[in-house]
Amino acid sequence: MTRVRSSVLIAILMATMATMATMAAAPASAQAPDKKVTVNLGGGYTASLSDVRDYLGDGYNVNFGVTINLTETVGFQAEYSFTGLGQKRISLPVAGAPGGSTTPTDFYGDMNMQYGDFNLVFKPNTGGKARPYVVAGVGVYYRPAKVTTPAVGYVPPFCSPWWYYCSPGGFVPVDKIVGSRSSTDFGMDVGGGVDIAMTDAASFYIEARYHYIWGPTFTDPTTSTERKATGQFFPITFGFRF
Fold first, then answer.
1. Sign (positive/negative) of CA torsion 44, 48, 53, 56?
2. Measured distance CA(226)–CA(230) in Å, rounded
């Protein structure tokens, strides 16, 4: 059901972008003039795709970029993005000792992603208020991941008015970190969007991209087969360009 909802959301937003592109029929005077350098700031929703979706949830993205307009239709963009992904719960059988009886136990996967990418931006001359564009490039992606499971720990008497918390002490639920790893890898992105002129100096944009990341290879001990930590994500971003 989650996969269906995400696919519907992506389809709706892509259709919205296509519809807004038809606004290009507006008078040419409404189009903000090209500048040598533009800055974009935005944020939005990020969907996890393919096998990633089985182990990590969807999340959000925040982006900051600078574009050097080489010509009226071609630009070079450098961009930084932070993506926070939601937790995904997986139940695994856990035994107190090898060969012993097992109990289903919840494990939670959590990851964020930071990357810098370098892109070519193509902006066809439409002469209208809404100006569609296509973007594609390569980047470096840093992905730290953490796996936790619920546990119980003893907390001594503690009081912090700045945390609005005081306790006489006792056993409380905690998250036990099972593993924490990170990987820095190369990737690529491709997508497009629509710039809608607001003033002569600023515009509002809607953008969707597909990111593919080449991850490290691991050997599955249960099957002795190699599996790759390939990343596939689809962020949809709303923002402003100055």
1. negative
2. 12
Q: Compute CA 8 distance to the chain's CA centroid, rounded to the nearest angstrom.
A: 18
3-class SS of residue 22:
helix
Give, for 12, the enclosing helix (H) or strand (E).
helix 2-21
Please tell me the distance from the alpha carbon of residue 110 to that of residue 90, in angstroms, as a whole number.
Answer: 12
pTM of the model as a whole? 0.77
CA distance 57 to 86: 4
**Parallel/antiparallel/unpaired status of strands 165-167 and 102-122:** unpaired
Own/partner long-range contacts of 18-25 (Cβ < 8 Å, ≥24 apart): 20/130, 20/194, 20/196, 20/206, 21/126, 21/130, 21/132, 21/194, 22/130, 23/128, 23/129, 23/130, 23/196, 24/126, 24/127, 24/128, 24/129, 24/130, 24/131, 24/132, 25/128
Question: What does the pLDDT look like over 6-56, one tens digit per residue?
Answer: 444 454 455 444 444 444 434 433 344 468 999 999 999 999 998 888 888
pLDDT tens string 128-159: 789 999 999 999 999 998 888 888 787 788 78
Measure the CA–CA gap between 95 and 192, rounded to whole angstroms. 49
Domains parsed from the chain with CATH numbers: 2-92+111-141+182-241 (2.40.160.20)
Place of tokens 């509002």: 204
